[in-house]
Specification:
Blueprint lengths: L1 H19 L13 E6 L1 H4 L20 H8 L4 E4 L7 H8 L7 E7 L7 H10 L2 H16 L1 H16 L4 E5 L19 H25 L2 E3 L2 H4 L27 H16 L3
Parallel strand pairs: 1-2, 1-3, 3-4, 4-5
Helix pairs in contact: 3-10, 5-6, 5-8, 6-8, 7-8
InterPro entries: SEST-like, SGNH_hydro, SGNH_hydro_sf
Keywords: Signal
Protein name: Lysophospholipase L1-like esterase
Length: about 270
């Protein structure tokens, strides 16, 4: 774990510098056409208030990465199917109908809710160290086993429904800085912060494994957020505000509109 963090820290310096000068780029690797965005709150833009009133409980932000990227690439028509709280089953039953042979680009961020995001965050913010460890260890095991299998099947089905599309899977960042900074109204202990990171690393590994098996592109999001997690000195992820419970440990406006969007743009331009 220590070696992984050292490698990520070194690479993050270059990524952060690039983000600071980021500008919209042309989508060189994808045929212009229909862009379908699938996924949960990390795709809908929860944490980047205010939300589009028309999106209701799905809490789609104008600053989400799908909407920001689409504004920068007007040759694409966005079908934003993302929704806060979405699980793999929700993507299958409520979102994938938007896919067709006309779809040329698909992005998806999902799996965090299946992996128990709310339960682990609650346990690590309000529970004992033992309760947090139990919740995150269970989630980490699930992420590397059943979740990876379920995601691989989902990505395979997305490819079948949109055979002419490029499919990109954007992952999740590490949520909490492991230092001693305040998270706001509640701050997890040092041990619990490490457990949250432990779970995030296993979740990333499970998603990457699934993407590899299904033949789709995985976009790593731990690296660009490194050093900018919640509770740190310069967070791109929201801390704990009781008045905004659904936004806790979700990217803020900069995290969504700049960091996620930049990584999506950079990955598309590699295609």
């Amino acid at each position: 774990m220590r070696r992984l963090r050292s490698v990520l820290v070194t690479a993050a310096l270059a990524v952060t510098a690039t983000l600071a000068a980021a500008a919209p780029a042309h989508a060189t690797g994808v045929t212009p056409g229909e862009y379908v965005a699938l996924g949960d709150s990390f795709a809908s833009g929860v944490g980047a208030l205010p939300y589009d009133p028309a999106s209701g409980a799905c809490k789609q932000s104008p600053d989400s990465y799908p909407r920001t990227w689409a504004r920068n690439h007007p040759a694409f028509t966005l079908r934003d199917m993302t929704c806060s709280g979405a699980t793999i089953a929700d993507v299958r039953n409520r979102q994938m109908a938007a896919l067709s042979t006309a779809t040329t680009l698909v992005t998806v961020t999902v799996g965090g809710n299946d992996d128990g995001f709310t339960n682990t965050v609650t346990a690590c913010l309000t529970g004992t160290d033992a309760e947090c460890k139990y919740a995150t260890d269970l989630a980490a095991y699930y992420a590397r086993t059943q979740l990876a299998d379920d995601l691989a099947a989902l990505y395979t089905d997305i490819r079948a429904r949109a055979p002419h599309a490029r499919v990109l899977v954007l992952g999740y960042p590490r949520l909490v800085d492991e230092g001693t900074g305040s998270c706001g109204a509640l701050s997890p202990s040092a041990a619990n912060r490490k457990q949250v990171t432990h779970n995030a690393d296993h979740l990333a590994a499970g998603i990457a494994d699934a993407a590899g098996r299904a033949g789709v592109r995985f976009v790593e999001m731990r690296l660009p957020f490194l050093g900018h997690e919640a509770c740190g000195a310069d967070p791109w992820i929201n801390g704990v505000d009781p008045a905004q419970l659904s936004e806790i440990f979700h990217p803020n406006r900069y995290g969504h509109a700049v960091v996620y969007t930049f990584m999506l743009t950079a990955e598309i331009n590699k295609l």
